Amino acid sequence: MKLTVLLGGTSSERDVSLASGLRMATALRRRGHDVRAVDPAVGVVELDGLDGGVRTAPPTVEELDALRAGGAGMAARMLTLSEVTDADVVVLGLHGGHGEDGTIQALLDMADVRYTGSGHLASALAMDKDLSKRLFRDAGVQTANWIMLTGWPEAEAEADVVATVEEEIGYPVVVKPSKQGSTVGLSVVRRREQLLGAVLEAFRHDDEVMLESFIPGRELTVGILGGEALPVGEIIPKNEIYDYECKYTPGMAVEEFPARLEADVAALLQEQARLAFQALKLRGCARIDFRLTDSGESYCLEANTLPGMTETSLIPQAAAAAGIDFDDLCERIVTLAMTDAVASAAQEEG
Q: Measuring CA to CA, how many Å separate 335 from each of 52, 91, 323, 330, 341?
């Protein structure tokens, strides 16, 4: 097939996207496909010249602002590129920002271009952590308590924010941008004097900030491929949380697939992941993350609609535990996009 991989972009996860996209493109070329690449921030790029390395820290806000200024309007101009409009399937290797929030998906929908992963509405819902948590609860998927800030509080209201956190959430509290990934801008706050600084840091990356109860326990993840749950995995980070450094620096986390769990616990997590997947109307491949307390309670953290495909990423490890090698995983993701397109067309005709 003629495939075009979208990778890079202007989100804080640009490096991760380049690594994911390049690895997927290489795998799909090995399967015999004609594979091209487009970076929404730059345009058509040569795969052979890409650097697929991930730095130990994400790009700075200043670097991303410069990239956005240089590539203003490029995402919309993608629809004038034959590499996009003539592709049998566009393979989304983007992470975060407009690549994962439904914007790119909506553009591709309007151009009637098939693409991998979830549709524009589902992508937007999953990226918005506030809305997704509301849907999780409605679907019977337990998630931690939270409150939202939709703008930096006025000076006289700062004390009210602190009081609300202490009354409704308590410490420790997780402070994070509502629409970011890879833990960019995230802090775990244990003392009152740290709170407003963490909120300010989160607002550097988003216009909404979530303050969420910290759930101590084991970090677990469940991949969903075509509606079916992959083996549960456990992440044991060297840092307190599974942060950007632990995710993309070899040796900074131990990942076990399958996780060492009782069969009934693993089955429960897989069912909760399927419910979360369905609640957000996801499709293709996604990853649902959880915390499991010492008492055996599971809490859904979030859904990732375009999970990483790098050398250290979790979905490829989960697939391998199910007997699916990386090349076959990429092939299945493309095949699911073709199947979903046919099903959507049949629904519209009906």
A: 25, 11, 18, 9, 10
Q: CA-CA-CA-CA torsion for 276, 238, 182, 127, nearest 10 degrees?
A: 20
Residues whose CB is less than 8 angstroms from the CB of residue 75 and which lie 6 or more positions away in sequence, other chains included: 40, 98, 103, 104, 107
Catalytic residues: 13, 182, 248, 287, 289, 302, 304, 308
Q: Is the pLDDT of residue 111 over 70?
A: yes
Q: What is the pLDDT of residues 194-241, one digit of tens each?
A: 998 899 888 888 888 999 999 999 999 999 999 999 999 999 988 777
What CA–CA distances, in Å, run from 3 to 114, 116, 127, 268? 10, 11, 25, 37
Its pTM stands at: 0.89
Question: Taking each helix axis from N to C terminus, what angle separates 103-110 and 120-127, rounded to the nearest 10 degrees?
Answer: 170
